[in-house]
TrEMBL record:
GO terms for biological process: biotin biosynthetic process. This is Aspartate aminotransferase family protein. PROSITE patterns: AA_TRANSFER_CLASS_3. It comes from Shewanella livingstonensis. SUPFAM superfamilies: PLP-dependent transferases. Keywords: Aminotransferase, Pyridoxal phosphate, Transferase. The lineage of its organism: Bacteria, Pseudomonadati, Pseudomonadota, Gammaproteobacteria, Alteromonadales. Gene3D superfamilies: Aspartate Aminotransferase, domain 1 (3.90.1150.10), Type I PLP-dependent aspartate aminotransferase-like (Major domain) (3.40.640.10).
Length: 450
């Protein structure tokens, strides 16, 4: 039992919950429950924890709250919608907001990607996209195209499809016998030896895209359905592609009739100073998977943007035929749709994507000022994302990263640690002084932890 649970209450008016029953996701449960970090409210750039401490949010929650916290417009839209239409079946029935939202979303998506399929999470968006790829090739008379190509260190959520194309060992090992068959992985694009402390897209590593040609030679293009990559890998610690790498993947996939899927669950909706990474880096894939900031994280929601070609090809057969045997009870849920529409209005009215672009240089210089601190071996950034990589301590991989994360939290800043990489992805409403605060918190923590 933790000291907190023994006390039962904290200094604030909040009562500590019984923590015995919630099996927390992606969390070291025993460690957490012995020394919990509980958030009870949020406003603007700050959380408040259960003891009443203000915590600067340097992670937009979990890459979600791009418009900042406690947005009245979103809570009003949610509350209005839940009273008006709390639920509508999504199979063979519709409601206007889902159509309105799809329409609005497609004003942001790259030209040619003008169909939207709604999901409830990033994992569901990924599995939906993989299934769509198979559906498309079959409808297109190329049913042998069933193989997928992901990338080492890629994170595509936790469905069996997502962990199969994903490349994070810990997420796969326990389930290895049950993963999708016929999946290969491109090499990851992290190259600290050549690219350490690059600003923006690193110069070295374009050649890693050529491995795709080798895989195509090995398996035959006629057997490959799709390549899926995060334009920028977030979960493995902010790993950027070399300049030109994504363009090269697009050229190769085009040449061989292979679909290209960008998983933009974290890069979507302004994180990189544009609606999508594909816009920022001028590469249009065939599908884009999204979630998180689509509605500022308010309610579970995701969406897959699909090319008109894929959609139209699947629309074969008589009118009464269901084209795609796939979907979720909550696809396009009215309350989630209302929250997303309110969020998109905030992004537009406050020009938050441009704001992120305008802050990028300041943010870049601020995070790179950490170079030279003890154990900092690389710093990577793009848009309003940064990764600060530390050498593992001799106590083991991840110990230093966790200690810095926990130290920052106890001192009033929420950062994210993946192994020994500290990731920053603040809400796009962040002020320059708050960027300075984040960097100061990290610097203090690095010095304190050693
Ligand atoms: N894809 C990417 C690139 C992600 O970063 C994530 C989550 O962080 C996911 C998919 C999975 O999203 P979710 O946790 O909503 O299922």
């Amino acid at each position: 039992m933790s000291e907190y649970q023994q006390n039962g209450t904290s200094d604030s008016s909040q009562t500590w919950p019984n923590m015995a029953h919630f099996w927390m996701p992606f969390t070291a449960n025993k460690q957490f429950k012995a020394n919990p970090r509980l958030l009870v409210s949020a406003q603007g750039m700050y959380y408040t924890d259960i003891e009443g401490n203000k915590i600067l949010d340097a992670t937009a929650g979990l890459w979600c709250c791009n418009a900042g916290h406690g947005r009245q417009e979103i809570s009003e839209a949610v509350s209005k919608q839940i009273s008006q239409l709390d639920f509508a079946p999504s199979f063979q029935m519709g409601h206007p907001l889902a159509f309105e939202l799809a329409d609005k979303l497609c004003q942001l998506s790259p030209d040619g990607l003008e169909k939207v399929f709604f999901t409830n999470s990033g994992s569901e968006s990924v599995d939906t996209a993989l299934k769509m790829a198979l559906c498309y090739h079959r409808a297109n008379g190329q049913a042998t195209r069933t193989r997928f190509i992901g990338r080492e260190l890629g994170y595509h959520g936790v469905g069996f499809g997502g962990i199969s194309v994903g490349g994070i060992g810990n997420n796969r090992k326990t389930f290895s016998q049950q993963l999708l068959q016929g999946v290969d992985h491109l090499p990851h694009t992290l190259d600290i030896a050549n690219n350490a402390f690059s600003h923006g897209l690193p110069p070295h590593g374009l050649d890693k895209a050529e491995v795709l040609e080798q895989l195509i030679t090995l398996h035959g293009a006629e057997n490959i359905a799709a390549v899926i990559v995060e334009p920028m890998s977030g979960s493995a610690g902010v790993i950027l592609p070399a300049d030109g790498y994504l363009k090269r993947l697009r050229e190769i996939t085009h040449k061989h009739g292979i679909l290209l899927i960008f998983d933009e669950v974290i890069t979507g909706f302004g994180r990189l100073g544009a609606a999508f990474a594909s816009e920022r880096w001028q590469v249009t894939p065939d599908m884009i998977t999204t979630a998180k900031a689509i509605n500022n994280g308010a309610i579970p929601m995701g969406a897959v943007f699909v090319s008109n070609t894929i959609h139209d090809t699947c629309m074969h057969g008589p009118d009464e035929l269901i084209e795609f045997f796939h979907g979720y009870t909550y696809s396009g849920h009215p309350v989630a749709a209302a929250s997303a529409l309110a969020t998109l209005s905030i992004y537009e009215n406050e020009q938050l994507f441009d704001r992120a672009k305008g802050l990028e240089l300041y943010f870049e210089q601020a995070v790179h000022s950490l170079k030279g601190l003890p154990n900092v071996i690389d710093i990577r950034n793009t848009g309003l994302v940064a990764g600060i990589q530390l050498a593992p301590s001799d106590k083991g991989v991840g110990k230093r990263g966790y200690a810095i994360f926990d130290h920052c939290f106890r001192q009033g800043a929420l950062v994210r640690a993946t192994a020994d990489i500290i990731a920053l992805s603040p809400p796009l409403i962040v002020e320059k002084s708050q960027i300075d605060d984040m960097v100061n918190h990290i610097s203090d923590a690095i010095n304190a932890v050693g």
